[in-house]
């Protein structure tokens, strides 16, 4: 279901507590968890005109998310904006510009800064993250280890992220950058450049007159 300004008001929606979590952690998580119906435009740092988030969606810490005008977020987005993990506190900030379109099954993991500038188009099943689960201790389960320090991510104005692509921490995609389907982006994408593959590398770039092969 999609509603104008997207967010159905007044639904109660049970707050899930996952097995295996301590009551304290579960209570803390419940404070920040939004299941469908548990967030409204007023919960966000800002929520622009004519924007909507289709449900189901999971939005954590909406107060740390700014959404511009005419933003469309298709079903099953998971905006994982996290202030606390295993006792570490973060100051996350997710900024989504005007006229941004975010496809189905998007995941954004943010404990630092993720910026999606105006007019970005994101296809289905895309992951954007400014951190990863840490693995410095080889003997402790990964889920019990701290997150890696965040590295800011910026998707430049007018850029495109193809279906199934992944944008990792520290990456800046330049204006009108083009990330091909299935690409895993580990390094910056220059403006007006097409990157593809895993790890993604340039395949074409605009030379001022025409698209030039980079291979
Ligand atoms: C990037 C894309 C547009 C192709 O662009 P193109 O200019 O037609 O590229 P070409 O077909 O000329 O390919 C150039 C080279 O890149 C390779 N390539 C193209 N797309 C690739 C991809 N997604 N992954 C890996 N390699 C790719 C080609 O095999 C070719 O390699 P070669 O030079 O060794 O033969 C297309 O692959 C793509 O990703 N489309 C987006 C699909 C999508 O996300 N749709 C959802 C819309 S909401």
3D architecture notes:
By secondary structure, the chain is mainly beta. The chain has a single domain (7-213), classed as UDP N-Acetylglucosamine Acyltransferase, domain 1 (3 Solenoid). It is built from one helix and 23 strands. It has a nine-stranded mixed beta sheet, with no helix packed on it. The chain has a six-stranded parallel beta sheet with strand order 1-4-9-12-15-18, with no helix packed on it. A hairpin with a 4-residue loop joins strand 22 and strand 23 (211-213). The longest helix is centred in the N-terminal third of the chain and has 10 residues, at 23-32. The protein starts with 22 loop residues before the first helix and ends with a strand. Residues 1-21 and 28-34 have low confidence and may be disordered. Coenzyme A (COA) is lined by residues 123, 162-163, 180-182, 194, 196-197, 203-204, 215. Residues 123, 162-163, 180-182, 194, 196-197, 203-204, 215 line the site of coenzyme A.
